[in-house]
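For the sake of transparency, this paper describes our internal protein records without simplification. The tokens are whole numbers drawn from a learned vocabulary of local backbone shapes. One such record is reproduced below, unchanged from the form in which we store it.

. . .
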Amino acid sequence: MRKSLKFLLVAILSSLLLSTSVFASSVAKTSATMALVEDNVCEITFGNTGKFTKKMTNIDTNNKTIDINLSAVNESEPDKEVQLPGEVVLLIDNSNSIAVNKTTVNNVETTRKELILSSAKTLVEKLYAANPSIKMGVVEFATAATGDEGTENDAKAVTTSLINDKATTLNALTTISNEKMGPRTNIEAGLDAASKLLSNSTESKKYIILLTDAIPNTAYGVTLDRYTSKSADPTIAKLKAVENSGINLISILINMLDEPIYNSEEDPTPTYLEKSQKIFGTETNPTAGSVYYVEDAKVTDTVTNTIYNELIQKTSTATVIKDIVIKDYFPDYIINNFDYAQLTTPDKGNVTATVDKKDNSITWTISELQPGESSNFTYRLKLKDQFDSSIIGQNLHTNKDVTIDCKVDDKPQPQVHNDKCPIVILDVPATKPIPQTGSNTWIVVGSLIALVVVVGATSLVVAKKRIK
């Protein structure tokens, strides 16, 4: 009898505990308030030129809804119409140093002069192929064979005018390879002669391409200068004047060593690199036009590729991003307590209509985004009519993570991700009791009364048996 009584008591208490735990966990939405804690924006760069953004567009605290917008854009610019140069003058150093100095490139020994001329010839071939109507000229400079003072004779126009003939331009470069000028470097005179070859027309783009391995050590009216401001200042002024006249200037400075100039008259003695940077500026802050400091091994690539690309002004390289897979993951408490609904469809691609319960995610796939293309869609998270009381007072992250996979030039890119998201909080006013589904007050009271009756009756039966 005692065992039966104990069993009965345990069963009743268990049912009470079970009913309390079941019914107390569910809270009515109407009793809760919602507030925004953090309006975080998730931004991810993918495929170098792709940008993903996830942000809240609306929050309705009365109806307990949160609207989230996802967007993807390829910020790569479409290739713009190439603006080809109309006039180009090759201004080539032909002083002693460029003819005497030898260098080895790709295991082949050559003079620096031949390296420059070979690169210039390749550039000429490419320019005429890109723009058959281009007009070109060739100018060499150094100092005249006689005389110590810098004059306009220190430069020579190998082509007496601009020409629209590839063969003639190439022959002019060959002529330089067979000629020798004086020992010193009058860049001022070279810029003057090159400028005079170019027309006054404003309809075509005009360029002077300077190739030298030396810094100026003479200028107009300067005699036997040892790399001082007497030759540097006029050169700087001429560089600026050329640019101000509407001519595009590109300077390629070859093998400017970071070692002292052996016969400089300046104190302290500057290095070749320091002196050239004072005159031409740096690559990031040039005195005029564009400036490139290159070693012998990089001359060919710089002239035939880098300079060529600058000349044809191909300002952007279009990038197509393919096989884009964007996965948006949700925390368990969001999936369990909020309904997911897609408000709009993407401009491009497809989104799974429901949340995949295996990993609490939705997946947005886009076959490709062309340069400048974008796509976006919006979904809504709506608090369920009944929700778990355990999330009350907790910061609720509306998102767990976003991952993006894609391909560029058919090559898979590293996966990228970001877990930033809007954060909300639910609360129930302290002055109002939490309405819980299926209020269990009557169950608890009734069970207690039944328990007392059963225990009392059982005790009475036991007592009577003992009396007997």
Remarks:
- The longest strand covers residues 50-60.
